[in-house]
Amino acid sequence: MSTPLLELRNLHAEAEGASILRGVDLTVGEGEVHALMGPNGAGKSTLANVVMGHPGYTVTAGEILLQGENIATWTPDQRARAGIFLAFQYPEAISGVSVIQFLRQAIASRKGLDELSVLEVRLDLAEWMDRLGMDPAFAERHLNEGFSGGERKRNEVLQMALLEPAVALLDETDSGLDIDALRVVARGVRTVRDEHPLMGVLVVTHYVKLLEEIQPDRVHILVDGQIVHSGDADLAQLIELEGYDAWRPVTT
To answer: CATH says 6-98+165-247 is which class?
Structure first.
């Protein structure tokens, strides 16, 4: 049996002394797409940020295993170099740094190189921008500055394509997108997966529409910091029809 790409074992985490994750167990294997759904405040985005090593959260118990190695104490840059990628819900704009400059540094770091040829990056970037249907002029713009919501999300997909992660965490990539932009982003994710079929993906989302486009292998429901139910892609449709009440703890 092969070692999972990502495995969370009894993961507990808190922020500012408040417990958020309360014993999460989750396993993502090679080539698998998992979706994490749940009501507002359940801890979905927290889970993605904890796996990435966000300093605002503290792991208080449990393990985060990347290809069998516990990375719970690693810094975010160590995790990124090892192959974890996080697509942000609200990507930040960075004035003065072009898309190509940012990617050149990020790819060099991912590959463990001091420097990477501008020409090499430009060629790979041009190829992927063509495949993702992006204007070549996009590469010279400052990172996310003046970008529409759809452009920011497509830029995240572009980064994912070029960084070639082992595990991609997509934190509400569909947030703020209209249906056309969502389909463009979802098509980009599928294109990247076709090129890197062993990449594992964890999609954090509220909406079934994105999952209809990406088609997860497993869907997990997170309530009050715990995964309370898992199933196949049909579970997302059930949530769409019935909401989360059936999986909330019974109060007396």
So the answer is: alpha beta
